[in-house]
Write a structure and sequence with these properties.
By secondary structure, this protein is α/β, with parallel strands linked by helices. The chain has 15 helices and 20 strands. Helix 2 (65-78) crosses helix 5 (160-171), helix 4 (141-156) packs across helix 8 (261-274) and helix 9 runs parallel beside helix 10.
Length: 508
């Protein structure tokens, strides 16, 4: 989220303008938090070039240094209920609305104690962000890139296992799911976004004769504030939604998910340690509707960076539309939501690839990914082999506490998710059109555990095939090979939304 500021200036006035810019930039820098003072000059595109690469994923083999470090971090994290305050402009705030984050796989174990910001507190955060934004925007790109580079190093080294442990215990991610999310992907977001900004800043408009006219362009933040609303299922997305706008010169209100507060709190503190000044990103846990109502009512709303459910994003979009005459800027809305994602199996597909790919897509992290497969279309000719393969693999999956490193997956995120997902399983048990082939059992006695469930339907338009479940439930419709085209049409006509899909075939 950024603006492009382009200017065409006569060379005769450049020295005067440059002097004024330098004066304003230095003044802006002096207003930044003294504890994190950053030298500021005119924002420059003369950046030092650098390359980057994806962060390696650790294997965590028995006896490895990373495994020992993670085991220690898990013990430390589980040993206490960590207090997480609201942070606005560097000041810690606590309200009367106390909330706890629990372990999904052991819901009696409180992992973090945090506080909901009320409307007044959220307005205070907005004021702080709006005041901070123009000062932060004058910090040169080169200085911001140094901060992001240091943050990535801290995430990759010193705090890697603290991030993994908070994600594993707080969001019930297995060791490998946490590593690829809260470590590797988060580090990639920080490093690659910095790299892309550096690449963008290389390019300037053509100036045919710079003695007469100089054309220049720079990236600047948007006046006002960005609201980052992040989900529970990917720690990395929280860091990306909040800190990518910040990298581009914006000030941010970050509303973390209630069920990912601890891991997001880790990110917030790492970025502060790396040098992000107070007030640039404000950590504001809050009740969803209260946060949404308050930010959309502010005339200073400049954008919403969102990942979550379709109903929530629809609500925010409607509120922005209703208030459109009140805003100083046109708010940018960026939203990624889930979908009723599909696997479509062609009669030429390789059966083993179908089975392996579908089991992983549908049941890793209990199907709680925006890209998870939840509906599948299989030709009659391949169904017997695919059915046997899916059922056999599903029954092998180990569902347990994430601290058991041999577990394939663990519990779903909370009681609301548990009730929603199991309602579809009960629907399958009662419907004449649905047959449960594997799973169908669940218990919330200790954790919110639902066994991976495979359902076959004779009705491709049953609600279990059209409504987003966001859990470990896969429903399959078997079609006649001769009805290939007719069945393909079902993919995009039976649901209003989808995010991902896969076609399995050997015939291009």
């Amino acid at each position: 989220m950024f603006n492009l500021a382009r200017s065409t200036q006569n060379s005769a006035v450049k020295p005067m303008m440059a002097a004024a810019l330098i004066k304003n930039a230095v003044k802006a820098n002096n207003l930044m938090t003294k504890s994190r003072c950053i030298s500021s000059v005119v924002p420059s595109t003369n950046l030092k070039d650098f390359q980057t690469a994806n962060e390696p994923v650790y294997e965590y083999k028995k006896g490895s240094p990373e495994r020992k470090a993670l085991e220690e971090a898990l013990k430390r994290t589980a040993a206490k209920c960590e207090e997480v305050p609201i942070v606005i402009g560097g000041k810690e705030i606590r309200t009367d609305q106390v909330v706890h984050q629990v372990m999904p796989h052991n819901h009696q174990h409180k992992l973090a104690k945090f506080y909901y910001a009320d409307s007044k507190t959220i307005k205070s955060a907005i004021k702080t962000a709006v005041e901070t934004q123009p000062k932060w925007d004058r910090v040169p790109l080169s200085e911001r890139l140094k901060i992001w580079d240091k943050a990535a190093d801290l995430m990759a080294g010193k705090y890697r296992q603290d991030l993994n442990a908070a994600t594993m215990l707080g969001q019930a991610k297995t060791i490998i799911q946490a590593e690829i999310d809260s470590a590797a992907e988060l580090i990639d977001f920080i490093r690659l976004n910095a790299f892309f900004l550096k690449e963008c800043a290389k390019y300037q408009p053509i100036s045919e004769n710079m003695k007469v006219t100089k054309n220049s362009m720079r990236y600047r933040g948007i006046d006002g504030f960005i609201a980052a609303v992040s989900p529970f299922n990917f720690t990395a997305i929280g860091g990306n939604l909040a800190y990518t706008p910040a990298l581009m010169g914006n000030a941010v209100l970050w509303k973390p998910s209630d069920t990912a507060v601890l891991s997001n709190w880790r990110i917030f503190n790492i970025m502060r340690e790396a040098g992000v000044p107070d007030g640039v990103v404000n950590f504001v846990p809050a009740d969803g509707p209260v946060f949404g109502d308050t930010i959309t009512a502010s005339p200073h709303l400049a954008g919403i960076n969102f990942t979550g459910s379709v109903p929530t994003f629809n609500r925010l979009w409607k509120q922005v539309g209703n208030n459109i005459d009140n805003y100083i800027n046109f708010p940018r809305l960026i939203g990624e939501c889930g979908g009723k994602n599909y696997h479509f199996i062609h009669p030429t597909a390789d059966v083993q690839s179908v089975v392996t790919g579908t089991i992983r897509s549908a049941f890793e992290f209990c199907g709680q990914k925006c890209s998870a497969c939840s509906r599948m279309y299989v030709p009659e000719s391949l169904w017997p082999k695919i059915k046997d393969g899916l059922v056999a693999e599903a029954t092998k999956l180990k569902i347990d506490d994430v601290q058991n490193f041999s577990a394939f997956t663990s519990a779903v995120i909370d009681d609301k998710a548990f009730k929603r997902i199991t309602s579809y399983i009960e629907h399958a048990k009662k419907s004449k059109n649905l047959t449960i082939l594997a799973g169908g059992t669940y218990s919330d006695a200790k954790g919110y555990f639902i066994n991976p469930t495979i359902v076959q339907t004779t009705d491709p338009k049953d609600k279990i095939m059209t409504e987003e479940i966001f859990g470990p439930v896969l429903t399959i419709y078997v079609y006649k090979d001769a009805d290939l085209q007719k069945t393909m049409d079902l993919v995009h006509t039976t649901t209003q939304f989808a995010l991902t899909g896969a076609v399995f075939a050997q015939d291009e």
